[in-house]
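Example 3.2
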Amino acid sequence: MADDDEITAKRPTIYDLAQIAGTSASAVSSVLNGTWKKRRISARLAERISRIAEEQGYAVNLPARMLRRDRSRVIGMIIPKYDNRYFGAIAEHFETMARERGLFPVITCTQREPDLELEAAREMLSYQVECLIVTGATDPDRIADLCSAARVRAINLDLPGSRAPSVVSDNFSGALELTRVILSRVRADFGTALPLYFIGGRAQDNNTRERLRGFTAAHVEAGLAVPEDNCLMRGYSAAKTLAAMADLKIADGSGVFVNSTIALEGVVRWLHDQPNPPQMRFGCFDWDPFAAFLPQNVGMMQQDVATMLSTAFQLIETPPEGAPTLQIPCRFRPRP
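Structure, written as tokens:
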């Protein structure tokens, strides 16, 4: 097996590419850094150089290129999870929208770990990102301060902060509507008027607090008081939700507000494990196309990822004064 020095020695340079293409190294450099049109290099030659670079396995030295430019054209995103459709959709839309704007998107997952979030932000800054979209961070203000010191703009997405502009879902209104629907279906299907259970999320998170506020407001409208024991917020993990479901001792005629599709996995596992599952109804904040067909499901609240990210890019392109929080309405999707 070749050692590292031998592998490095075999890597092509722009001079190698120039020799193969029968042109100058400066022409190759212009094609690879995207400035060939300004130098009046023909499209035919640019295409040939690009093809040769690909065939030879030439990799652009991105950090070195950034040092030679006034702008890096790199935009970063930190994201807490990849394991649900909501954050997966955020990552996919972010990449598409960034490229449409001539930006190079870089994404890293931080597992909802505060120290990892800060480390990821530092790494992004080392790559000279022009802006950092901070998605679902546990401490967005800490990251905003870091970015401010580096003169890099930060935009909070999903969870708000106080030191950078934020784009979030209208969690209160979405939860209010979803709770109304669950209560109505429980009454219609079982003839009961019991307060619902609220399960999933973290009590310290803005989104959970706002959804709990909407959940409570819907109960007040219905003349119902929610017992404190009905609300279990032990995090977003499926395993913790499964344990919480066992503690709730849900009976026939019950209704459950499930706070996230990750928590919903625990609910589904619990239902599967029951020898005689109770007659119950649930609704979930957020949306999953497979869970939408579960017989106990009455509907799901889908967050408008496309509008959230479009709004975030508008804030990047036209920076606002201060650190406003913009709320994007959600869409209720009934069970098919």
